[in-house]
């Protein structure tokens, strides 16, 4: 019984991290230097072009300020690892159901 709860917990965590990965990926892909960020002053009426909204523009700006373009060399392998964890979890569930 305890093992089932640990499995469910790990599945929920993997799905949450995958969702976070998708959010950050969309924020980075749709980064626009004219969007609001930590080093710019903007009007509340200014439109945000980032697909993830205002939070996405801040996240993308922060990551690009910290890591530069090399953020993709960190981001893509992390996504691959998350996807593999999620796939292994899904395949183990399918095997148990068969």
> What structural category characterises the helix and strand content?
mainly alpha
> Order of SSEs, N→C?
HHH
Number of helices: 3
What gross morphology would you assign? Answer: elongated
Share in helix: over 70%
Mean pLDDT: 83
Major sheet description: none
Number of strands: 0
First and last CA, distance = 20 Å
Strand content: under 5%
The parts where pLDDT drops under 50 for at least 5 residues are: none
Gyration radius over CA = 18 Å
Overview of this protein structure:
This protein is mostly helical. It is 71% helix and 0% strand.
How is this fold's topology laid out?
Elements: H1 2-29, H2 53-67, H3 71-97
Which terms summarize this structure?
mainly alpha; 3 helices
Quick recap of the structure?
With 98 residues, this protein is an all-alpha fold. The chain is built from three helices and no strands. It starts with a helix and ends with a helix.
């Amino acid at each position: 019984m305890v093992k089932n709860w640990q499995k469910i917990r790990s599945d929920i965590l993997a799905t949450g991290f995958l969702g976070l990965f998708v959010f950050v990926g969309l924020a980075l892909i749709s980064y626009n230097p004219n969007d609001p960020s930590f080093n710019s002053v903007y009007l509340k009426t200014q439109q945000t072009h980032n697909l993830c909204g205002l939070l996405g523009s801040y996240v993308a700006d922060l990551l690009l300020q910290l890591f530069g373009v090399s953020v993709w060399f960190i981001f893509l392998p992390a996504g691959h690892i998350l996807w593999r964890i999620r796939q292994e979890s899904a395949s183990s569930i399918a095997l148990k159901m068969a």
